[in-house]
Known about the structure:
It is an enzyme of class 2 (transferase). It catalyses: nicotinate beta-D-ribonucleotide + ATP + H(+) = deamido-NAD(+) + diphosphate. The chain is an alpha/beta fold. The protein has a single domain, classed as HUPs (Rossmann fold, 3-Layer(aba) Sandwich), CATH 3.40.50. 36% of the residues lie in helices and 17% in strands. The chain has helices spanning 15-27, 52-63, 84-94, 106-110, 118-124, 140-143, 160-168, 179-187, and strands spanning 2-8, 32-37, 69-72, 99-105, 126-130, 148-150. It has a six-stranded parallel β-sheet, with helices on both faces. Helix 2 (52-63) runs antiparallel to helix 8. The relative contact order is 0.19. Bound molecules: adenosine-5'-triphosphate and nicotinate mononucleotide (NCN). Nicotinate mononucleotide binds at residues 7-9, 38, 41-44, 82-85, 108, 115-116. The site of adenosine-5'-triphosphate has 19 residues, from strand 1, helix 1, strand 4, helix 4 and helix 7.
Amino acid sequence: MRVGLLFGSFNPIHIGHLILANYMATNTTLDTVWLVVSPQNPFKPSNSLLHEFDRLHMVRLAIADNADLGVTDIEFRMPKPSYTIDTLTYLQEKYLKYQFSLIMGEDNLATFHKWKNYEQILDHYEILVYPRSGSGKITESLKEHPKVTVVPAPLLDISATFIRKCLKEGKSTRYLLTEPVAEYVHAKKLYQ
Ligand SMILES: Nc1ncnc2c1ncn2[C@@H]1O[C@H](COP(=O)(O)OP(=O)(O)OP(=O)(O)O)[C@@H](O)[C@H]1O
Ligand SMILES: O=C(O)c1ccc[n+]([C@@H]2O[C@H](COP(=O)([O-])O)[C@@H](O)[C@H]2O)c1
């Protein structure tokens, strides 16, 4: 089985993530896409980060009706911050018969050369990149690397940062979150 892994903070999960994951699951040779909820990105501050169980719960709510997508909390039981190479290695040992690929928005490819053991990731895994506006400059050698494929998918200028800002300012996030996620956010008064 070919499994695409979309790593993220999902703080919160929004329609940008869902469209990206669903696009990859249905328009590439992948059989399924798993969303990997990271407790702590090594590059991001933790002050605006919601508890990992809330973020995991929202991902579960968001993908409940989509059989092409799955979610894993594997990084909750691993050392923090979450280094992707360690998780990939762990998953590959656990699921010997699966072929894993990495999925990322273009913004993450721009900083990829700073990731732990990024050459090792490139040696062993395909990387599928989804275009994203406002991405930093991507090293040409990375974009043209034989293991990197930039997928021609529509640009969606949506970020969790923007959604958190709207929620904090009491502005509408209608259509940016799925209904079950929006209900959870409002019921628990998250990001206020
Ligand atoms: N609108 C989008 N288009 C393409 N890729 C996206 C989009 N939103 C998120 N991604 C990708 O999904 C993955 C997880 O993203 P993440 O959870 O950091 O969301 P985010 O919206 O970028 O969050 P934040 O605004 O808090 O930084 C990353 O690879 C990111 O590049
Ligand atoms: O492994 C690394 O060095 C590394 C550096 C930066 C980010 N990552 C991972 O990339 C994923 C995307 O992060 P985020 O917060 O932008 O969603 C998340 O799972 C991070 O743990 C991983």
